[in-house]
Known about the structure:
Layout (H helix, E strand, L loop, with lengths): L25 H16 L4 E3 L9 E4 L11 E12 L2 E5 L9 E5 L2 E7 L5 E7 H14 L10 H23 L1
Antiparallel strand pairs: 1-2, 2-3, 3-6, 4-5, 6-7
Nickel (II) ion (NI) binds next to helix 2.
Amino acid sequence: MAVLDLLYYPDEKLYQVSAQVTEFNSELKQLVDDMFETMYADEGIGLAAPQIGVFKRIVVIDTVGEKKKEDQLVLINPEIISSEGKTGINEGCLSVPGLRGHVDRFEKITVRAQNVTGEFFEKSADDLLAICMQHEIDHLNGKLFIDYLSPLKRNLYRKKAKLLAKERERLKKQ
Length: 174
Ligand code: NI
C-alpha cells in the first residue's frame, strides 16, 4: 500500500468532473487500498479519487478511523437516489487544509453505488456519514466545500493556501 500525493486547492484539476468506472480489476482494488492509506495518513474520514489526480468516480470513507474493514465504505459510481431533511456542520477537506466552513447538506440520503467487484448496492446514511458521502460525491462532480462559502472567505483562504503550498515545497526539499 502507498500514500499518494494529494492535489490542493486552488489546483484547477480539482474542478474536473470524474468519469465512470467501467473496469473492476485488481488495479482498482489496489487504488482503493492506496486511497484508504492516503486518507488515514492525513487523518481524513473520506477521500475521492480526483483528490489524488485520478479522475474516476471512486470514494472511500471511514468515519470511525480505526482502520477496520467493517467500517470502510467504498462507493464506486455513486448516485444519490433519495434525500431528506437539512443538516450541516463545519466541514474540512484534505485538499483544502487549514480551513473549515459550514455547508448545508441533506440530513439523510440513500446512495446507489458499486463495490470494488462491480456489484450494485444501496446505502442509507444520516448525520456525519451522510454529510461525508455528499462531500465526497461533490468531489466527483468537480465541486469543493469551499465553493459553498462566501467569496470573502474563499479569497482570504486563497492567500493562506499559497503560504501552505510554499511550506509543503519546503518540507519536500528537506
Ligand atoms: Ni474533500
